[in-house]
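Pasting as-is:
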Amino acid sequence: QVQLVESGGGLVQAGGSLRLSCAASGRTLSSYAMGWFRQAPGKERELVAAINWNGGSTYYADSVKGRFTISRDNAKNTVYLQMNSLKPEDTAVYYCAADHRSGLRVDYEYNYWGQGTQVTVSS
């Protein structure tokens, strides 16, 4: 079983950047496809970006295309989410998730979750 820990969240002004990290332990990350989700207050958790086991395939929600980049370093057992041109509507708790299956798009399909990291974008 893999354990996931997110870091890198914080408070940033609109237009700024943050890089989130998701560090895995317990199992090698190369066995898993990964996703970054977010949940804003009063809203459902949504998939922001996903990446397959070797980084050869990625997915982005329309709302973040061209601004966010998901990547992974399997040697470091870490997945990243580079967030540029941040907007107030990006404010949410961001979670990383893992599963052996690729191509997953909804939260209930992922078996392993981190505890989340808060991202707040001020206007």
